[in-house]
């Protein structure tokens, strides 16, 4: 319909004139966020709407946020400022002004929703205090391949249900700090090798059952934004993939927030395929006009973008903080320590070597990681801490020994009062001849990884591997050997038989030193569980090149394994991994009682049968056996799949009844014919486990 020019001018003038903030209809807090968003959108000019649809780095570059969109002062809309990353606010201009938190995979090892909530709230507060409006995190991709360079960032580990549950308190906590969260990278960004062009070829049922659930969990928690990834899915770019974005994410999974692209991940004007906002700058989206895109499409994207900011309070309490603020604090470092403590995994503890006593102890602390520790991964998710207290000093403090100067290998200090002595050796020092004087050798090793490339192997550096073989080979009647590993994911541990106790803290963040020391000496009883399998050898799952990293110069990675990676692969092929998914020991012990099944509810008594307080993560797995096939593809069923878990903190002799009620969704498969979840009718085996291979009881549930 053509408006007369005069009328068009009046309409434009009325819509374009300033509106008092207090009288602006979209400032009515009695309306819903989406109603307020629609009202604001209705007052925008075409140019103002377009300004929402792509980043304009220059508008924010003076403030050095990694992206965002400028505000619309006339309509009292503040600029929307985005920043990395999934484990804390990354400030390249002021490194050290924010806290380097444990990474996503690290806190996932807690298997504890309260830990996840505390992590999200603390990170979200620092984003707000830095003046941001969006945290570009959490990362939630499922760890399909052990060498993926960004596994450390992702809180799902190798299991979709673990990610589905753990992501929810994180989203809720971040957004509770007036920060819109961003679940990334949607979808199947499961490798860094050739990430900018690889096509990850995944069938629909595998996507729904193995890769979508962490995003679905984020959606159920109300996540405001999702980031589409660089790769292709089934030969279509992720950020213009009508099937995954529009059909699966927005229609089938019901996502009501907005999709932003990864930085530079667009290849066309794909707003009609489901992308709402192009980041960091316009490559294609500035072509949007009523000539190129139907108005209702533009309006829908603008409303999707605005709604989350009304939800978290950006309009009602504009964030006036500056990026120049220093927002880390001793209180936050303490929180980071507790997060790391609760995520530390005790992989092995022969003869209860750990915890150590705090007196009459002659210890050798070996490895440069003890002096100059690596505590985070690399890339856009990297957060550089102001400082990291060396574990060597944490150990000295715990033993009341003057802090040893770690710049000199072989340096030591003693405390005659409690007969403790700490000697430090860096990674390149061979064991001295008189090592038998030591009661304990504590070895520290690290390896890390980064965005942009996958790990070349699952081992430590040659220098550290040599150190490990030399020092772990030492023997002595009372000589005990303890190993502390900081890693970005799975590693190989061929020398483990020569080591009495092994602790793993993944990418532990800046408070690593005190955290691991509190665990070593028993001030904290470790309760972490592996969120991914540790293999016996490289590529133990025998992925072909066409599966990973892909054929045609890595252009095509085809997921022919379907469900069967991680523990599902080990179960199917009856291979025992080095350390299983869900594995983690304690300084106490737990017994499991009889499994009771009553309809959809399964329960079992758990008792702390040891002498110290501890926490146990009770895991519920469900399997339908290979004889039962579901859906038109008649695919093999995994032996068991994680469908429930809970972390119970118990005093000695205390008993709790662990109870889980399985939902239809827990017992369903994605039916590619009906395009809905269909119940797996038949006999389900219920496994109660302390890990995926440490099964303490089973039962049968008739699903109908
Ligand atoms: C990067 C990453 C993404 C990050 C973005 C902004 O390439 O893939 O995770 O948030 O660009 O730095």
Oligomer: single chain
Q: Which small-molecule ligands are present, each listed once?
A: alpha-D-glucopyranose
User: How is the main sheet built?
Assistant: 7 strands, mixed
* DSSP strand count: 27
Low-confidence regions: none
Range of strand content: 15-25%
- Which structural class do you get from the secondary structure elements? alpha/beta
How would you sum up this structure, described in words?
The chain is an alpha/beta fold and 704 residues long. The protein is 24% helix and 20% strand. It is built from 17 helices and 27 strands. The strands form six sheets. Strands 10-16-15-14-11-13-12 form a seven-stranded mixed beta sheet, with helices on both faces. A six-stranded mixed beta sheet has the order 1-2-3-4-6-9. α2 (33-42) packs across α11 (295-312), α6 packs antiparallel against α12 and α13 packs across α15. The radius of gyration is 27 Å and the shape is globular. The termini are far apart. The site of alpha-D-glucopyranose has 9 residues, from loops.
């Amino acid at each position: 319909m053509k408006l007369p020019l005069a009328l068009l001018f009046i309409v434009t003038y009325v819509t374009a004139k300033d509106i008092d903030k207090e009288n602006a209809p979209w400032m009515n807090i009695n309306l819903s966020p989406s109603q307020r968003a629609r009202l604001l959108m209705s007052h925008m000019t075409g140019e103002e709407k377009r300004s929402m649809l792509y980043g304009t780095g220059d508008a924010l570059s003076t403030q050095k946020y990694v992206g965002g969109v400028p505000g619309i002062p006339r309509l009292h809309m503040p600029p929307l400022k985005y920043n990395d990353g999934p484990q804390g606010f990354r400030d390249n201009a002021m490194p050290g002004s924010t806290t380097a938190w444990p990474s996503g995979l690290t806190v996932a090892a807690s298997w504890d929703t309260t830990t996840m909530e505390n992590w999200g709230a603390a990170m979200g507060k620092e984003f707000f205090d830095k003046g941001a409006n969006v945290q570009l995190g959490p990362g939630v991709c499922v760890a399909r391949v052990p060498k993926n360079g960004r596994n450390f960032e992702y809180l799902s580990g190798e299991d979709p249900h673990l990610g589905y549950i753990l992501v929810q308190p994180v989203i809720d906590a971040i957004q509770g700090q007036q920060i819109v969260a961003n679940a990334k990278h949607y979808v199947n960004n499961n490798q860094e090798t050739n990430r900018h062009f690889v096509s990850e070829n995944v069938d629909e049922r595998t996507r729904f059952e193995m890769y979508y659930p962490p995003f679905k969990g984020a959606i159920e928690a109300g996540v405001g934004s999702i980031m589409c990834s660089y790769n292709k899915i089934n030969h279509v770019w992720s950020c213009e993939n009508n099937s995954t974005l529009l059909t699966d994410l927005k229609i089938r999974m019901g996502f009501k927030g907005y999709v932003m692209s990864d930085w530079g991940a667009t290849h066309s004007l794909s707003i009609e395929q489901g992308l709402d906002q192009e980041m960091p700058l316009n490559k294609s989206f500035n072509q949007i006009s009523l000539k190129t895109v139907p108005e209702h499409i533009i309006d829908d994207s603008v409303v999707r973008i605005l709604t989350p900011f009304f939800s978290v309070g950006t309009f009602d309490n504009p964030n006036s903080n500056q990026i120049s603020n220093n927002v880390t604090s001793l209180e936050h470092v303490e929180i980071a320590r507790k997060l790391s403590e609760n995520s530390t995994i005790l992989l092995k503890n022969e003869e209860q070597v750990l915890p150590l006593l705090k007196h009459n102890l002659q210890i050798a602390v070996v490895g440069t990681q003890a002096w100059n520790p690596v505590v985070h991964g690399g890339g856009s998710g990297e957060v550089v801490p102001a400082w990291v207290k060396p574990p060597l000093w944490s150990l000295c403090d715990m033993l009341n020994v003057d802090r040893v100067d770690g710049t000199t290998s072989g340096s030591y200090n003693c405390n005659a009062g409690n007969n403790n002595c700490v000697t430090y050796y860096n990674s390149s020092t061979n064991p001295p001849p008189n090592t038998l004087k030591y009661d304990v050798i504590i070895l520290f090793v690290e390896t890390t990884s980064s965005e942009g490339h996958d790990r070349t192997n699952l081992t430590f550096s040659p220098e550290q591997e040599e150190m490990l073989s030399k020092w772990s080979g030492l023997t002595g009647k009372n000589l005990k050997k303890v190993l502390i590993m900081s890693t970005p994911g799975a590693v190989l541990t061929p020398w483990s038989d020569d080591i009495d106790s092994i602790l793993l803290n993944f990418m532990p963040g800046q408070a690593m030193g005190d955290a691991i020391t509190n665990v070593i000496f028993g001030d904290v009883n470790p309760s972490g569980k592996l969120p991914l399998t540790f293999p016996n050898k490289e590529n133990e799952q025998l992925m072909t090149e066409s599966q990973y990293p892909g054929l045609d110069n890595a252009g095509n990675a085809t997921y022919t394994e379907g469900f069967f990676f991680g523990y599902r692969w080990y179960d199917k092929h009856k291979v025992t991994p080095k350390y299983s998914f869900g594995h983690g020991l304690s300084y106490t012990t737990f017994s499991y009682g009889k499994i009771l099944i009553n309809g959809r509810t399964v329960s079992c008594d758990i008792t702390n049968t040891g002498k110290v307080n501890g926490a146990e993560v009770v895991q519920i797995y469900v399997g339908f056996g290979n004889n039962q096939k579901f859906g038109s593809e008649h695919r093999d069923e995994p032996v068991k799949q994680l469908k429930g878990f809970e972390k119970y903190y118990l005093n000695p002799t205390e008993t709790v009844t662990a109870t889980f009620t399985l939902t239809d969704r827990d017992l369903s498969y994605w039916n590619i014919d009906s395009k809905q979840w269909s119940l797996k009718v038949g006999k389900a085996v219920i496994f109660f486990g302390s890990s995926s291979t440490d099964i303490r009881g089973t039962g049968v549930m008739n699903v109908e």
